[in-house]
């Protein structure tokens, strides 16, 4: 039985959850079974590719597969970005890469825990408990 180095990591943003699997390979990155280069919209794709561009040569020798569920388009992109960055750091065990990620953006490795405020009863779906009065 060969010992293949495989790491599983996860990332969350609002309601989106991403699970990344990384192993040695040829540099293929897939998000929900599609190549990351084909991810739409373009702004979300750029957000998703940030850890790969910062990692440089570390990212070219690994295959990454990301599964994202829940949330909106940009929440999914940020969750996938977090999972990819964590996977690269776990796979390479490189402190310099970890420092580069943290210096660029702390949310590359640390999850943003803010959530949507829950709606309040009798406010027609609004999050604030008191409704604004209009005396006109």
**Could you tell me the strand content as a percent range?**
15-25%
Could you name the ranges where pLDDT drops below 50 across 5 or more consecutive residues? none
Biggest beta sheet summary? 5 strands, mixed
- Total separate domains: 1
Output the number of helix runs. 4
- Assign the CATH topology: Ribosomal Protein S5, domain 2
Helix content: 25-40%
Q: What spatial order of strands do you see in the largest sheet?
A: 1-2-5-3-4
Named at the architecture level, the CATH assignment is 2-Layer Sandwich
Report the strand count. 5
* Structure class: alpha+beta
What is the N-to-C succession of helices and strands? Answer: EEEEHHEHH
Radius of gyration: 18 Å
Broad shape: elongated
Tell me the span between the first and last alpha carbons: 78 Å
